[in-house]
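Box S2. Input/output pair 1.
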Amino acid sequence: MGILLALILILFAAFSRLMPHAPNFTPVISIALFAGAYLKKGYAFLVPVAALFLSDVVIGFYGLETMAFVYGTIILIVAMGLLLEKKVSAGKLLGLSLAGAAIFFVTTNFAVWLVPGSIYPKTLAGLAQCYVMAIPFFGNTLLSTLVYSAAMFGVYEAAERFVLKPKPVQE
């Protein structure tokens, strides 16, 4: 039952990407961390990538080079989630959520600068400008990762403790 609950939470979070939301306020990083923490290794990598791909089918694809960085970063964040080994603590989750958001910011904005046709010159100043222009979006990425991670991990852990494995009633 735990795996079914994990998949339902991932699908719900992925579906929320299709609903109107603030720019970069998505569950993508949280889905990757959650999958790494609770799904078997093969599924841990497959499910978030599939969820991202299916939502991209609806939302629309973007440059192949940029997509490679986005999907690669999600795979890296799934690997970070594996570090939780189903032993989640608030401190570990906070640290991995912050790290995941920061890594996503660094890698995907590097891709925006790097790809052919970018509006940023291929200089250190152009790279710096790309990162500076992306700072307002980072706030939403960070906040959404913290909110979705707290929600997904919190619901899962509460369900595991109180619904799926109820404690015996004391007389």
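Box S3. Input/output pair 2.
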Amino acid sequence: MSDLKKDAEDLGIKVPGNWGDKRIQEEIDKVLNASTTGANAGNGETLNTAFAPKPDPAAPVPSIGMNKKESTVPVKLLYDAWLEADVRTPAGKIVDLPVSKAKELFAAGKAERADRLPGE
């Protein structure tokens, strides 16, 4: 495995076999540019993320594209899902989704509830 591909996968980027080094680098840059703007955003500076902790693949994905007033529920995806345009969330991932979106996935057989029963 090339170092570039390994770096991309360490950042959580799924690398299809047909991507060349240029495309892999573009995707890495997108992730790094999105995650490095922080406290200094607006003055052109970025944070050094060379020693930043790697994201935990088992951690739940934050709520995506939801109305702030609608409550959410934890959902375990049974199939890969595109919860945001061009962003694939892999099967087995636990995500917080608005109740309406969760019900759609439950009805389609694409997800199941991931919350704990009382007393667990």
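Caption for Box S3: Residues 56-120 form a domain with the Ribosomal Protein L9; domain 1 fold (CATH 3.40.5). Residues 37 and 60 are 22 Å apart (CA to CA).
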